[in-house]
Amino acid sequence: MQYNFYPGPSKIYPQVAGYFQEAMELGILERNHRSKAFQELFSTTKGLLKSKLNIPLDYEIVMVSSATECWEIISQSFIQNKSQHFFNGAFGEKWCNYTQKILPKAEAISFGLNENPSLQSVENAELLAFTHNETSNGSAISEQFQKQLRTKFSNSLIAYDATSSMAGYELDWEMGDIWYASVQKCFGLPAGMALMVVSPKAIMRAKEIDESDHYNSFNFILKNALDNQTHHTPNIANIFMLNRLMRNVENISAIHQNLKKRKEQFFNELSKLEKLSSIIQFNELQSDTVFCLRGEKDIIRKLKEEAEKEGFILGNGYGGWKENTIRIANFPAIPNQHYIDLINFLLRFDKMN
Ligand SMILES: *Cc1c(COP(=O)(O)O)cnc(C)c1O
């Protein structure tokens, strides 16, 4: 028995094996991406995503290769002068660094682990960049903050990296103009594809900027997507598996409810442990999909050893948190029972060490 709590690549829905088999049998993987068969697949997949994830009908969905590629696409196609990047962890910082290579004026605004981003220094915001769910430390941007941001910067573009939250959180899409995620986290699919969900305002802005210098210039990607095609031969297998998955999962509202319930149970039990605690102190800043637990270096080392012996794959700490934290994914593809087993393991471990 293996329990996979790694926050990406992460547990894949077991039914995906059957979806791949079905794709082989249908021959869709051998069809070109300008064929009617592909266009139909692409179109129904977008429809299913909109209905299962409650995406507004006037937002567009495009498919690209990775979240990392989205960092580049946004820099190229949605920013003329400069963006402002708010981060408290490694992924937000990387996004800022990648942007600075293309647009050296991009501004980094870091904030503390247990606080909201500070908007005080922000003027003339063209595009504001946030990591909705910071996978490296288990923090999230609260709904309340998202609302304040939208109200205060109603003319700016707001972009959210939702790589470890899209398909887990019931997102309030109108709070952002660009949302993106790769599929190897909350979607519970194999790596190698990402989705970008964009608002009418973002589309208009990209048209004004009119950038067309790259194979992945957004306007070119969108033009293809509106015709249910892609700008290059895409990951057809993943699009097909995403299609079948979206047919079969519950609405995001029910999925998110279940994740929140598991989170509450998990943190209730966690409070009984002496040797481990969350690095995030406030519930509204604690991610619903990634938990980051801190302990003494020796305890963390021993925990990893014991966990491995019992078949639990836990996420390593990230960057500066490598040696004194572990990360645990609370992704939809992981069954409820696995959390009960994990909690029991942690309770036993805590007592014995
Ligand atoms: C995993 C992750 C990424 C990188 O995703 P890739 O698919 O490897 O490009 C970016 N941002 C966040 C928040 C992530 O969790």
Automatic annotation (TrEMBL):
What keywords is this UniProt entry annotated with? Amino-acid biosynthesis, Aminotransferase, Coiled coil, Cytoplasm, Pyridoxal phosphate, Pyridoxine biosynthesis, Serine biosynthesis, Transferase
Cytoplasm as UniProt keyword: yes
Q: Name one Pfam family in it.
A: Aminotran_5
Looking at the keywords, is Metal-binding present?
no
Q: Enzyme class, one word?
A: transferase
Which reactions fall under this protein's catalytic activity?
4-(phosphooxy)-L-threonine + 2-oxoglutarate = (R)-3-hydroxy-2-oxo-4-phosphooxybutanoate + L-glutamate; O-phospho-L-serine + 2-oxoglutarate = 3-phosphooxypyruvate + L-glutamate
Gene Ontology molecular function: any one: O-phospho-L-serine:2-oxoglutarate aminotransferase activity
Q: What start and end residues bound the annotated signal peptide?
A: none
Q: Which cofactor does it need?
A: pyridoxal 5'-phosphate
UniProt EC number: 2.6.1.52
Q: Which family does it belong to?
A: Belongs to the class-V pyridoxal-phosphate-dependent aminotransferase family. SerC subfamily.
**Record's protein name:** phosphoserine transaminase
